[in-house]
Design goal:
It is built from four helices and no strands. It is mainly alpha-helical and 117 residues long. Helix 1 runs antiparallel to helix 2. The relative contact order is 0.14.
Length: 117
């Protein structure tokens, strides 16, 4: 991989990181909006729980992706010759895959093997 291509991926990673940090976490709505209220709204509770689950899941996923972005940026900085190589088999990761997710660490084959239960 040429230095110009690595620079392009670094810019892409930094832009992704900036966007994710700028968006911030989704706020997780409290189960009760009025602490003084007695009883609950039976219809609102399932919707509130679903919203909390969705927000929590999205926030966890963002944390994972940000961690991968930081690892990829560190690899570009500290071991640029290894960027774009699968961390398991050391074969090149396809350009298409890196263009979609420049923070990936595994080639398609190794990712499939890791995803199997």
């Amino acid at each position: 991989m040429t230095p110009a291509i690595r620079k392009r991926y670094k810019e892409k990673l930094l832009a992704l990181k900036y966007e994710m940090v700028r968006e911030g976490d989704l706020e997780i709505e409290p189960g009760r909006t009025d602490a003084a209220a007695v009883g609950t709204d039976e219809d609102a509770q399932p919707l509130t729980e679903m919203s909390q689950t969705i927000a929590s899941s999205r926030n966890r996923e963002r944390t994972v992706v940000l961690r991968h972005i930081n690892v990829a940026l560190a690899r570009l900085e500290n071991e640029p010759e290894l960027f774009g190589l699968c961390t398991e088999c050391e074969e090149p990761i396809s350009d298409k895959r890196l263009d979609l997710r420049p923070y990936v660490e595994l080639c398609v084959e190794c990712q499939r093997a890791n995803d199997k239960p």
